[in-house]
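User: structure tokens for this one?
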Amino acid sequence: MKPTTAPHATDAAAPTDAAAPTGTAPRRLPLPDVLRGVAILGTLGTNVWIFAVPGGEARFLVDVAAISASPAGGWSAAAVVETAFRFLANGKFLALLTILFGVGLAIQHRAATSRGRSWPGRYGWRALLLFVEGTLHFLLVFAFDVLMGYAVVALLVAWLLARSPRVQRVVLYAAGALHVALMGLLTLALAAAPVTAPQDAADVDAAVRIFNAGSWADQVAFRLDNAVALRAEPILSFALLVFLFLLGVRLFRAGAFDPDGRGPALRRRLTVVGLGVGLPVNLATTLAGPEFFLLDRYVCAPVTALGYLGLVGVVLDRVRRPGPVTAGLSAVGRTALSCYVAQNVLCVLVCYGWGLGLAQTWRGAAPWWVLGLWTAVALALVGGARWCLRRYGHGPLEGLQRVALRRLSAA
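Assistant:
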């Protein structure tokens, strides 16, 4: 399940430049770029299974078990590989992406205040543009878009950054507590709910046929007809998004992304807590059954995401000479908006019926062809991102966004 989102984009337009004294060139922090690249490719690792299930987005609404991480035919080698891959991706990279969006906001806030500009100032135009981009992406490409939810939360958090640190802390803790309480209550309700009758086979077939054999216009109409259900994740996880945005702000201000000072120690601590505590608990909720899905994806996965953040930072601390892997991830991170949309467009063209239709044609070859698709799309994103940066200095959607923001600000 995707939210991103959510439950899956980034504040691709957010800079990763540390504030610098007036008159000096800003210093770009390398870690947020690399982490953003990891998060983009990681969310693809979640979403690719939605594309590759015959019926895609429609299948999710009528048969959640079809995209469950639980093995369907016992613990064969294929089932073990698929379950492990999906477990490592599910919810973790979405949470990491959300934290990094908060980091981007903190960087923009610091840059604005250091230059004596008002805040949030014209940030509302940026959020509005992001919401429009997300709406188009939701309708035309992929139902589980995260940009719309990020745009709404970004407006709230941008306003909070102009408030006192105490107000920000109160909202951070309140949002976290509210989210955990809500997920706990919903989990209890799921566990106590009676077993319902399975979905009628004819209804399932009619829904999935839209994505197996329907036209692009049919799929757009499906998203419009089911907009409320398909937009449930950002609504359900709104408090979590607020919490993770503000957590990203706090981590940035604490120096967690700095190459020196407190940065290395904080990253080691995040690795120990996130992987040493979060990963085992996350594994337990995954194996506990579908009733614990909400706790698994929306409570435990964000803790594990902090471990991912720390681990990538620890590894990067030990890289003396960045090589092609670091450069590729950084390029994807710097063109994150373009890469997020491009990965979904590519998967749609490969998997859905009006494209190559491989989700239906190769349904018996899972999980191997799905892993191959993820690898191929990831390599295409890395190559395309590096080419765009060499040729233009930014991604295509980032460039379009800059032009639109200049015109909106000048209006």
